[in-house]
Specification:
Length: about 230
């Protein structure tokens, strides 16, 4: 696959380990949801999607799976260049029991996934990686229990017909207003969307990089969700 670059602003200056360095901040994902969430932090960044093999390894747990892929994406973007870059990557998966539910292959596959998840609680895991190719690779893990409402067959079929589920792990988007599949969430909403901002902020703080915004506040305002767990994460 040809590597695609999309510029989102210009390179900015960031405080890094007590110094002010010019960092080329890169998001290793072309997901519009991750671009939106990272943009809430107020930083300029470039988008450089990572092309990695997302096949599971036999015996691999879901947390290990998303952490491995997040790390692989960060390394894949960082390897070709020796420039002073900081790469942020993430991988999200939906898990029902011990089964990882990836993106549906077609409408029929989406139908099966949504029927399986309907009226039950499953888990969503997101692995986050922060990588400075010269010397840093840090990872973090977000985990959220997701209770699905008992949506009707008609609602499900209309949602599938819209095409929205086909590029989503587990065949749904929590933020889709027309379908609104989740009811009673008590965990990290941004984690289910695809980039847990408090986990990212916690990881960045380990290298002395602090956003100029109140991360829980901007996240909750943007997503319209009163988060009950941000203080436990940060």
């Amino acid at each position: 696959m040809e590597n695609y670059h999309q510029t989102c602003g210009r390179v900015s200056r960031y405080a890094f380990l007590g110094l002010v360095l010019r960092l080329d901040l890169i998001l290793a994902s072309n997901s519009p949801r991750r671009k939106y969430l990272l943009g809430l932090l107020g930083w300029d960044f470039r988008v450089v999607p990572a092309d990695v093999d997302e096949a599971t390894i036999p015996g691999e747990t879901p947390p290990d799976y998303v952490l491995r892929l997040a790390e692989s994406k960060a390394r894949a973007v960082g390897e070709p260049s020796g420039s002073d870059m900081l790469i942020i990557s993430a991988d999200t998966t939906v898990v029902d029991g011990e089964d990882i539910l990836g993106k549906p292959s077609d409408a029929e596959d989406a139908d099966q996934m949504l029927r399986r998840l309907r009226g039950r609680t499953h888990q969503v895991y997101t692995g986050v990686a922060v990588h400075r190719p010269a010397d840093i690779l840090l990872t973090d893990l977000g985990a959220t229990d997701v209770p699905m409402r008992d949506y009707t067959d008609e609602e499900m079929k209309a949602y599938i017909a819209s095409g929205n589920p086909l590029d989503k792990a587990g065949a749904y988007a929590i933020q889709h207003a027309g379908f609104d599949p989740v009811d009673g969430l008590q965990g990290c909403y941004a984690n289910v969307v695809g980039l847990p901002l408090c986990h990212l902020a916690r990881t960045l703080s380990k290298i002395g990089l602090e956003p100029d915004v109140n991360v829980p506040e901007v996240c909750q305002n943007a997503l319209g969700y009163q988060c009950p767990v941000y203080n436990l994460i940060l």
